[in-house]
Design goal:
- The protein is an alpha+beta fold and about 425 residues long.
- The protein folds into 2 domains: about 180 residues, Periplasmic binding protein-like II (D-Maltodextrin-Binding Protein, domain 2), CATH 3.40.190.10; about 210 residues, D-Maltodextrin-Binding Protein, domain 2, CATH 3.40.190.10.
- It is about 45% helix and about 15% strand.
- The chain has 18 helices and 14 strands.
- Strands 1, 4, 5, 6, 9 and 14 form a 6-stranded mixed beta sheet that branches. Strands 11-12-10-13 form a 4-stranded mixed beta sheet, with helices on both faces.
- β4, α1 and β5 form a beta-alpha-beta unit.
- It is globular and about 70 Å long.
- Bound molecules: alpha-D-glucopyranose.
Length: about 425
């Protein structure tokens, strides 16, 4: 954005600071889930007061898929309207060419960040974005309802299915007509890819695309996972789950109308808030596995800050990216939004442990979170994901069986791969 030729003064306490440098107008594009933007604005206000620059938030829809569509248009047009983009963890390999290499600008702080997060944003030698926060989903459950109905916390998806049905039926029989068993992200978008990767991997059905680029997704174990999931729609989950994104699921759970929810970390602080109907009544655990002896899988999420090559104020934009990721701001974000930080030290901070217990509790899950195959599928990841969520969504909608949809998916992925990713 614009450079304003300005000379300004500001007061900090009793000291007058004068900056004769040029103040600029920056813009940051940022999605809106939960309290993300509220805390962002607060931190931008601090940045403005400290530097004299101004920063505008360009607000995006909730869905990462919708955001990506818009970002690609701006980037293809080489637009200078946006200086800093908040980028989903999966995008780096697809959009690296449009961003500056942050490596030379963060050499002094890079080692303080979670190594895997830095790696996820590194394409070739380029650091496309400086990691802002991570994501590793949890199974949220109503501990009051499990206790009331004498049920343990489920460890497998099959147990979750039975327990959810039992409690939902009993609660409905007692007059709670709005109660559902399980809510998650079932709309046809990237969020469903995250959920479905967890189901399939936790059954032992392999990856959407394997790390070596091979395609093995059309297998009976993956079909078994998807058949169980399809059985949830209209039983333990509302029919509407086929259109649910993160905030839809949270709305149902937080108003007290679901026994279980799969959601990202941000939902914790909100569900524990004073205006939540489930405050004090819920807890979190790792997502179930596909059976005894099988692993639980949590998809790696997160959002990171990159400076576009087309920005006319790159130096100030870099300053902003560093500022939003400094210790103080990461700590505040972790406490207020329960988003896992990207600075290792924040996990050890005693104030964070006291005020947001979810953060240290979830560190091992974040460390073990499973990336989507964006590195394997490279520039074609978005198409891969879209084919995958379509196959899953069709199965959940009763539009073909899991076996049919996975066979079709395999053919489409092979065509997409061609001679190589
Ligand atoms: C969360 C994750 C992001 C993921 C998205 C899917 O925002 O952080 O990585 O793509 O959910 O809905």
């Amino acid at each position: 954005m614009k450079r304003i030729a300005a000379f300004a003064t500001t007061f900090v306490g009793a000291t007058m600071l004068a900056w004769s440098s040029v103040a600029v107008e920056l813009s940051i594009v940022h999605g809106s889930v939960g309290r993300d933007q509220e805390i962002l604005r607060k931190q931008l206000d601090k940045f403005e007061a400290e530097t004299g620059h101004t920063v505008t938030i360009v607000s995006m829809p909730e869905s990462t898929t919708d955001q990506f569509g818009q970002y690609k248009l701006w980037l293809a047009a080489q637009s200078s309207d946006i200086d800093v983009y908040r980028l989903d963890v999966i995008w780096a390999p697809q959009i690296a060419d449009h961003f500056i290499d942050l490596n030379p600008h963060v050499a002094d702080i890079k080692g303080d960040f979670v190594a895997g997060a830095i790696e996820s944003q590194t394409v070739g030698d380029k650091l496309v974005a400086l990691p802002m926060f991570l994501g590793a989903p949890a199974l949220y459950y109503r501990k009051d309802l499990l206790e009331k109905h004498g049920e343990p916390v489920p460890e497998t998806w099959q147990q979750l299915t039975t327990t959810a049905q039992k409690i939902m039926d009993a609660e409905r029989a007692a007059g709670n007509d709005d109660m559902f068993g399980f809510v998650f992200q079932g709309a046809a978008y990237e969020g469903l890819t995250c959920n479905a990767q967890e189901w399939i991997v936790s059954f032992g059905g392999g990856r959407i695309v394997e790390n070596d680029g091979s395609i093995k997704i059309n297998n009976p174990t993956a079909a078994e996972a998807l058949n169980l999931v399809a059985s949830w729609v209209g039983t333990i989950a509302p029919e509407g789950v086929l259109n649910y994104k993160e905030e839809d699921a949270r709305g149902v759970f937080q108003s007290g109308n679901a026994v279980f929810m799969r959601n990202w970390n941000y939902a914790y602080a909100l569900a524990a808030g004073d205006d939540s109907a489930v405050k004090g009544k819920f807890a979190v655990t790792t997502l179930p596995s596909g059976g005894e002896g099988l692993p639980s899988a949590a998809t790696l999420g997160g959002w990171h800050l990159g400076v576009t090559k087309y920005s006319e104020n790159q130096a100030e934009a870099i300053e902003l990216v560093r500022f939003l990721n400094n210790y103080e701001n990461q700590k505040e974000r972790a406490i207020v939004t329960s988003r896992p930080p990207t600075l290792n030290a924040v996990y050890e901070d005693p104030d964070v442990a006291r005020e947001q217990e979810f953060i240290p509790l979830w560190k091992p899950v974040v460390d073990g979170a499973l990336p989507r195959p964006s590195a394997a599928a490279k520039r074609k990841y978005n198409e891969v994901s879209s084919e995958f969520w379509t196959a899953v969504h069709n199965t959940m909608s009763g539009n073909g069986t899991a076996e049919e949809n996975l066979a079709m998916l395999e053919a489409k992925l092979k065509r997409l791969k061609g001679a190589g990713w």
